[in-house]
Structure prediction request, 340 residues.
Amino acid sequence: MTHYKVGIIGYGWAARRHLAAINATSLARVTSIYSSRPLEQAALDAEHGPGLRAFNDLPAFLAQDDLAVVSICSLPHLHARHAVAAAEAGKHLIIERPAGMNHEECSAVRQAVFNAGVRACVCFPQRHSRLVRAIKSALDAGLLGRIHYAEVDFCENHGPPHHQSRWNAFRRDGGSSLLLAGCQALDVLLLFMGLDVKAVSSYATHSSARQFAGFEFPTTSVTLLKYHDGRLAKVTSCVDALRPPGLSIRLFGSEGCLADRQVCLGPSSSAAPLQWTDLAEHLPDLKEPADDPLKTMLEDFLRATAQNQEAPLTNLREALNTHEVLFAAERSAQRHEGKS
Prediction:
């Protein structure tokens, strides 16, 4: 099996997260880092061990002949620019979300990847969590029947001292509540419900808490999706939540309901009581120890790339579909605010 040398663009929190996850796979090793600010080789060696080259010149970084994969972990407004440059240099891409700040940037990334004939993925690791994979398997098997309504919400406190608070409050890099964080919930919902979306309507609001006063965009949004077959879905993105971060899943089907790790299946007779049971009773895989969804995602992508195949869950096409629904939600929220 191929063992890839990977370079990372950027050296913030996301880059360190990618570095650890990539090195934990069986298929790749991070060998170089590009940063717009000078990095001391001695400091890199002390933190990560010897053998990690530091670059301050992007063309020189991308010109490495033995560099096969580039992980894009720069500031979000630079993701598309760096992804296009890396694709044009013939490198496979791991792109930290978002792939672009708007439709035009995402289209440029798609075209560059197609022209170069390289593989690419965008980091939506929640798809690869043991819980989400188990729920998707259960839905495919018909455990809940036909799902007619779904809710997937993501809540987190993105105010200071969040590790992204240096840039996340500004439109240039934060973009919107959905683009900053709620895209994770939207992506999971689309995995469960599909892409046959007929209409998108979104509303947004601001928290009055002082620590979120500096945000240039509404910190909470609620997005409603209507499907062509009549199904409905909702995504809440809340980056002003005064609570630990978390993803919440609620599914309502013709044979039962699901709430995160609990399931309630319809009774065999009208007299039988409805009650919640642990989802693990129906899906034994959930009894296994927790995994690292980012590592799982990267392992799947690298293995598929080595086989010159598109990863079934981790591919650019599906990620950009999520972005397009997200951009439709942003346009709806702006219309409801009276902004063009």
Notes: The chain has two domains: 4-118, 127-291+323-336. Residues 203 and 333 are 5 Å apart (CA to CA). The mean pLDDT is 94.
